[in-house]
Write a structure and sequence with these properties.
YojJ-like (1; 7-stranded mixed beta sheet; 7 strands; alpha+beta; 10 helices; about 260 residues
Length: about 260
């Protein structure tokens, strides 16, 4: 059997491979990569049975499963699908525009401001940890969290450790809920975040930790949690939680993760 492969076919294969690899990376972050591998294995078997071997009876069964399975996959991976389109739709993902923006920006000044902001955040977390004052801080990156920002009270202030500490003061009306930081500004407080449905979360962890996982499962944001019970600092990113970290570790982590965020 001869195959006539032209430039169009090569481009088609490359784009398909890129799409599959990107999908695998997104699912890997949420722990669903094994499901993706299983689905792809099924699709390959279905193609061989239905299209190559032309087995009508078995092929018909596979066709019916594929038709129903398409809807099942949408339900099963609705969080990952939402995250994918959110990232595609984010203006920050259009690299050529970012290139020109960065070219005309004073990068040294921008980096200085970013370092100052991170120091203020870490200082606030350190002080909240010492007094075992509970809190959850969300730092946006590429994905826009406007929907969640609108669930809270607008702050729109420069980043200040004292203001962050006052927001999470136990008698403050903004104590409950999350503080969202966007574009180097304290954007909104007392925000409602989605709660993770992950069944593997330790029972000892409370709503703040589950909310931190929830928002990082649905976006590329970073969530910092200060436990009200223990005073321990934790962070969540890509749906994964790191518990009981030191302020110095938090500062290093944020410096690495936020260095390209403007």
């Amino acid at each position: 059997m001869a195959f006539n492969i032209g430039l169009k076919d090569i481009i088609d294969i490359i784009l398909t491979a890129v799409l599959l690899y990107g999908t695998f990376k997104v699912l890997k972050r949420s722990g669903a990569s094994t499901v993706f591998v299983g689905v792809m294995t099924f699709v390959i078997v279905w193609f061989v049975v239905s299209q190559v071997l032309k087995m009508e009876l078995l092929g018909g069964i596979f066709d019916a499963v594929v038709n129903v399975g398409a809807f099942a996959l949408i339900v099963l991976f609705q969080t990952e699908i939402k995250r994918f389109f959110s990232r595609v739709g984010s203006s920050k993902n259009w690299g050529i525009l970012n290139y020109f923006k960065k070219f005309f920006k004073n990068t040294e000044s921008e980096q200085t401001k970013t370092d100052y902001d991170l120091v203020q955040i870490v200082l606030a977390c350190r002080n909240l940890s010492k007094t075992a004052t509970g809190g959850i801080i969300v730092l946006t990156r590429e994905n826009d969290l406007l929907f969640f920002t609108q669930t809270g009270e607008t702050v729109d202030s420069r980043i200040s450790s004292r203001l962050i500490e006052n927001i999470f003061f136990k008698n403050s009306p903004l104590h409950d809920g999350a503080l969202i930081i966007s574009n180097r500004r304290l954007s909104a407080a007392a925000c409602i975040l989605p709660v993770s449905s992950n069944q593997n979360i330790p029972k000892r962890l409370g709503l703040r930790h589950r909310s931190a996982l929830g928002i990082t499962e649905q976006s590329d944001a970073i969530a910092i949690v200060i436990s009200e019970e223990t005073g321990h600092i934790s962070w969540a990113v890509n749906g994964k939680l790191t518990i009981n970290v030191k302020p110095e570790e938090l500062e290093h982590f944020l410096s690495e993760e936020m260095k390209d965020v403007k």
